[in-house]
Amino acid sequence: MDRIIEDCDSLLSSFNALLRISALESGSRPPVHAEVDLSALLGDVVELYEPVANERNIALQLSLAGGLSCPGDTDLLFQMSANLLDNAIKYTPDGGRIEVGLSRQPEGNEIVVADSGPGIDPLDRKNVFRRFFRVESSRGEQPGHGLGLSLVQAIVHYHAGRILLDDNEPGLRVEVILPAVDQPG
Question: Is 0.90 surpassed by the pTM of this model?
Fold first, then answer.
């Protein structure tokens, strides 16, 4: 019975992610223009995941510039950040490290989540944003349905941002650039 409940929860989670992606991509979600304190938001996300990282002896290194805000939807930006950190923890080996950073760059606010996991092969990097795509090496080893990075990308685009995947040597480095509050759209 517990397995059935887990499967139903997983299916419901996937369905909700698909609905969210669809709403963001279709433009049917009304724009929210609140000022989101990215420093505080990332601090909250890290605080939420810190016990999981500590349990696996993963070092979380933070470098968050204060006072950086983005016009947008707090809930969506929280989900985006949580998905990125969740993936980093999921794929970082016990005893590894994850860096979470926030800085102001000429093109906007840059959020970085970099881990010491296996990374993603350069040939797979564009595909990981496709719905239901999973890197071959992670199938069966890690839970998931291949919707997390698709949702992250939809949230980034909804906020007129961009996302880049790069090598962290070892691991994956995810860079998200979002507009700053004082930056023209």
Answer: no
